[in-house]
Amino acid sequence: AQPMLAGISTLTCYSVLGTALIGAAIIFFIQKYFSGPVRLRPDRYTPVKLIRKKVVSDNVERPTVFLVFDTNVSGFPTGAHVSCKFTDGKAMTMRPYTPTRFSPSECELMIRVYPEGKMTQHMHKLKVGDTIDMRGPTGFKRYGHKGPGVMSKLLKNKEHHQEGIEHIMMFAGGTGITPMLQICNHIIQDEKDNTKASLLVANSTPEDVMLYDQLLKLESRSKGNIKVFFTVSKPSEDWKHRKGRVDEKMIKDLFPAPSSKVAVAVCGPSGFEKAVVEGLVSVGHEKARIWRW
């Protein structure tokens, strides 16, 4: 009887050991899953932690700040943004921002801090370790959702697409550069996308220009498919790019003529967008082909 009892005892030991190993693996998976960056959801706000912060402009009155949050935005569609929210007493403030890049571990936002901007002032005061409520992906405009050269507007009950685009005209005012950069990176990273793009980056002063070095590399990274132009309304003596506000002449000089194979993407302050759209319409571009982010 003793050998039989020994066999049972051995089986029991293996069973206990196996159960323990499985339990440890489950605990490890749960800890790893829940201790990693929070994955955002589009339907509800989640507190996310600020892990890095850097001021990257010389403009004292309106500094540009990079804020990196510990959250997962990988898999976000091109053109999407996140919505940020904070509450001050009974007042709630919400604003959309386009991440400068998509990552499984970080959400990087670039903001320009305005004296009267409730959200930007709040975000500028955040310290590493502080949190802000965020949800995403939000927004309904997309590029590449239906393949190369396709702009899309995804509404609840219907979708609108502009297909067969061979050239995208882009106008970025201030922080409006972020969705344009998303589209450019999408074109570069998709080997099947041969869409050409012309990007005009407009700011008040040379110090206001954001991501200058990164933007200069777009042409070489895209093998010449993407052209980048800069203009400022208050140039310095050593400014070597275009000068003045975007007008009809600048549009005609830099961009292709109106065509069904041309789309326009515009993002920036409301006054900038209004002026650009008016200029585009005056030179023959149809409003239906102008996409305002």
Question: Could you outline the blueprint of secondary structure elements for this entry?
Answer:
Blueprint: H1 2-35, E1 38-39, E2 46-55, E3 64-69, E4 71-72, E5 81-88, E6 91-97, E7 101-102, E8 107-112, H2 118-125, E9 131-138, E10 141-143, E11 151-154, E12 159-162, E13 167-173, H3 177-189, E14 196-203, H4 212-216, H5 218-221, E15 226-232, E16 242-243, H6 248-254, E17 262-267, H7 270-282, E18 290-292
Parallel strand pairs: 1-4, 13-14, 13-17, 14-15, 15-16, 17-18
Antiparallel strand pairs: 2-3, 2-9, 3-8, 5-6, 5-9, 7-8, 10-11, 11-12
Give a structural overview.
- It is a single chain.
- With 293 residues, the protein is of the alpha/beta class.
- The chain contains seven helices and 18 strands.
- The strands form four sheets. Strands 6-5-9-2-3-8-7 form a seven-stranded antiparallel sheet, with helices on one face.
- Strand 11 (151-154) and strand 12 (159-162) form a beta hairpin.
- It is globular and about 85 Å long.
- The model is unreliable at 27-34 (pLDDT under 50).
Average pLDDT level: 89
Radius of gyration: 25 Å
Across the major sheet, the strand order is 6-5-9-2-3-8-7
Strand element count? 18
What's the helix-strand series? HEEEEEEEEHEEEEEHEHHEEHEHE
Helix/strand-derived category reads alpha/beta
State the helix count: 7
Alpha-carbon distance between the two ends: 81 Å
Content of β-strand: 25-35%
* Helix percentage range: 25-40%
The major beta sheet can be summarized as: 7 strands, antiparallel
Low-confidence parts lasting 5 or more residues at pLDDT below 50? 27-34
The coarse silhouette is globular
